[in-house]
Design brief:
Elements: E1 18-21, E2 24-27, E3 33-39, H1 54-66, E4 71-75, H2 87-104, E5 108-112, H3 116-124, E6 129-132, H4 139-146, E7 151-155, H5 173-190, E8 198-201, H6 210-218, H7 220-224, E9 231-232, H8 238-244, H9 252-264, E10 269-272, H10 275-288
Parallel strand pairs: 3-4, 3-10, 4-5, 5-6, 6-7, 7-8, 9-10
Antiparallel strand pairs: 1-2
């Protein structure tokens, strides 16, 4: 098992401290980054194709940056069951948006893909992160990332992309997810990807039922404790909808609650659709945890109560 090394400031493992990703530097011992989601797909589970068009996708990405997103994750092929999407189609969806956003901003750009060819084209166009929802199952993906300066988000899942996985079973979902992520991180390091370029995502709802995702959120500290910056992709997921009996368009409050619990338990990147409220929730939680100072102090700070 990977040894994360000594704990850093605020009890976070040392590998989860200061990280430079692309043009930006994050101190994950005291900072939570918000990753916006932009899907250039007609069948994404949440936005239902609203950012499938090129102009809409670029506008959504830049709007997320204006709302305070530290990272933007661009996807051209969902993980969820559905027809196969060709590699070239995925490249055609992702790379032009990536290039346009890169020309306008130094935001960290992530590409959500499990295809090594898409990763290579994206890195060449300016991607800083590859977000692989298969957990680097394809050895060629490891080689592509190792032969670049890009980082990687290693995500837990069980199924092949675009295929169903009925009734997932775990004896201990958190322990099994942690073991999977540790093994994949070790394999990445052995293949030449530096440890300081690895992020981990337990994969809420990916081949997990609602009870599994709730337990992952409750015990998120065990994922953060593996020593890498841990990403919580809880936004508008079905586990929130089933818990609260809310449809896809009415899960923002539940998503924010799950995000805050994840932060308290060590999450340092939130992958979210609704960026502005997520940024405010992250900043408020940082302040409550003593990781940042308020923007200003005035109330009961002087001779009179303002």
């Amino acid at each position: 098992m990977t040894n994360p090394g000594p704990e850093g400031e605020h009890g976070m493992p040392a590998l989860a401290g200061v990280r430079t990703i692309g043009a930006r530097t994050f101190d994950f011992s005291r900072q939570v980054a918000v990753m916006a989601i932009v899907n250039r797909t007609p069948d994404s589970f949440y936005d239902r194709g609203s950012t499938f068009g090129f102009d809409a996708a670029v506008a959504a990405a830049l709007a997320a940056v204006a709302d305070g997103a530290d990272m933007v994750d661009i996807g051209g092929a969902p993980f969820a069951p559905g027809p196969e999407i060709s590699v070239q189609s995925e490249i055609d969806r992702v790379v032009p948006v990536l290039a346009a956003v890169r020309a306008a901003s130094d935001v960290v750009l992530s590409v959500d893909t499990f295809q090594p060819q898409v990763a290579r084209a994206s890195i060449d166009a300016g991607a800083d992160l590859i977000n692989d929802t298969t957990g680097l199952r394809n050895p060629r993906m490891i080689d592509v990332i190792a032969d670049s300066a890009a980082g990687v988000v290693i995500t837990h899942s069980l199924a092949r992309p675009r295929t169903a996985f009925a009734r997932p079973q775990y004896a201990d979902v958190v322990a099994e997810v942690a073991a999977f992520l540790t093994g994949r991180a070790d394999a990445a390091i052995d293949a030449g990807i530096p440890a300081d370029r690895i992020l981990l995502d337990p994969g809420h709802d990916l081949n997990k039922n609602t009870l599994h995702s709730l337990e992952l959120t409750r015990r998120f500290g065990e994922i953060a404790g593996l020593g890498y910056p841990a990403l919580a992709a809880v936004s508008n997921k079905d586990f929130i909808g089933e818990t609260l009996d809310r449809g896809r368009g009415d899960r923002v409050y539940g998503s924010l609650a799950a995000a805050v619990v994840a932060i308290v338990n060590g999450a340092r990147i939130l992958r979210m659709h609704n960026v502005a409220p997520a940024v405010e929730a992250a900043r408020m939680t940082e302040a409550i945890l003593g990781l940042r100072q308020p923007a200003y102090l005035r109330h009961n700070m002087g001779e009179s109560n303002d």
